[in-house]
Amino acid sequence: MSQTDLAGHAVAILRENDRGGYTVPTRGLYPFQWNWDSCLTALGQRHFDESRAWTEIETLFAHQWPDGMVPHIVFHRPDAGYFPGPEVWATGRPVPTSGITQPPVAGFAIRRLWERAADRAAADARAGALVERVAAWHRWFHAARDPDGEGLVAIIHPWESGRDNSVDWDIPFERVPADGIAPYTRRDTQHADPAHRPTKAQYDRYLWLLERFRALGWDNARLHDASPFRVVDPGFNAILIRSAADLAELAAALGMDAAAAESRALAARGLAALEGLWSAAHGQYLARDRVTGRLIDSASSGGLLPAFAAIPPARAAALAARVEAQGRRVRFVVPSHDPADPRFDARRYWRGPVWLVVNYMIADGLARAGQAEAAARITADSLDLIRASGFAEYYDPTDGAPLGGGSFTWTAAMVLEFLARA
Ligand code: GLC
């Protein structure tokens, strides 16, 4: 496939999955609007319809909760093909949503849309209207998910990380019971190969947490301390830090000085605290179990994602070296788990496969840090995967086999971004 054919195909997927003001990740498997999918999708849409790209993010923020949280799913219209649906979450929102959040990449996405916009007047107005909403979300994180003021925020459900079944969560998950949950039928395994999805033991625990939070009335003042699962994910925090830093730049450029100062301070505090997640032994960052206070021995792509934030140059160089070392073990970087670790599982979702959104954020950060070679390797591998296997949800890093859902929205969006860079 030529570059033009690739781009054309990517645009066709984004149009096909467009449901009006929002885009579904893929038909069947994910029939609603997902939070970080939408923000990254807008970056693809900007290449052919800038106005539509702004709408994607505006629709998401129209469903922000009064406390500032932006939910991980917005259930715009009923669809029986997905579990757990709105009746299970029962969050009581006017348009039903889930009750947890997802990686806050909106600040980054909005700044990028604004910076590269062709229609300046529209970009100023539409970005300006979003700044306060994003700032409120970031403020919510620090209030609800960092009650002791450590500078880093915790996730209280693996789905919040966006890396649902990562090895990172195995140890903290041992504390989550599975008994007493209502009987249920999974729908994901009807759309995709069960061998490439989370296990039943994991699913039971995802639902146990959901039911626990629901029993507490989705009151974010109580959920953090009440959750047996509280983990500080380096990838999640790096995305929040990058978004806060980008929001600060955007706000400053738009003359919103108070928002700029607040966001700048959040980013600086987060960056300083992130150092506490560095593992010299692993040559990368690790997640911290906030219940035990211990770092979790699991070298996942979540620990490489800090490249996306303005980490010290020596750390960025070390992460670039990790990517290059992994690239000698597998054909396609960046695997979601270290292929040298016996827990690496090439085809099971976030326990080994490559995901283009993670590749994009790591490559963006490494390029910014001057690690051009590692960034170029990630870009080249990402486009090679598409040429070999089409626009899948994720890929086997050893042979490039396409896995999970097909005609996948954020994969298509990332291809347009990678092509623009290449
Ligand atoms: C899966 C992924 C998550 C993504 C969602 C929709 O749950 O793990 O990151 O947002 O699918 O694509």
Highlighted features:
single chain, 422 residues, mainly alpha, Glycosyltransferase, two-stranded antiparallel sheet, two-stranded antiparallel ribbon, 17 helices, 50% helix, binds alpha-D-glucopyranose
Account of the protein in words:
Helix content is 50%, strand content 4%. The protein is mainly alpha-helical and 422 residues long. Strands 1-2 form a two-stranded antiparallel ribbon. Strands 3-6 form a two-stranded antiparallel ribbon. Strand 7 (394-395) and strand 8 form a beta hairpin. The longest helix has 26 residues, at 120-145. The protein binds alpha-D-glucopyranose.
Task: Output the CATH topology.
Answer: Glycosyltransferase
Note the run of SSEs as H and E.
HEHHEHHHHHHHHEHHEEEHHHEEH
CATH class: Mainly Alpha
Domains counted in the coordinates: how many? Answer: 1
- The average pLDDT is 97
Describe the main β-sheet briefly: 2 strands, antiparallel
Q: Tell me the overall shape.
A: globular
Short summary of the structure?
By secondary structure, this protein is mainly alpha-helical. The chain contains 17 helices and eight strands.
Question: Layout of SSEs?
Answer:
Layout: H1 3-16, E1 33-34, H2 35-45, H3 50-61, E2 73-74, H4 86-89, H5 106-115, H6 120-145, H7 158-161, H8 170-173, H9 188-191, H10 200-215, H11 220-226, E3 231-232, H12 234-253, H13 257-274, E4 278-279, E5 284-285, E6 288-289, H14 313-329, H15 356-368, H16 372-389, E7 394-395, E8 402-403, H17 409-421
Antiparallel strand pairs: 1-2, 3-6, 4-5, 7-8
Helix pairs in contact: 1-17, 2-3, 2-5, 2-17, 3-6, 5-6, 5-12, 6-12, 6-13, 12-13, 14-16, 15-16, 16-17
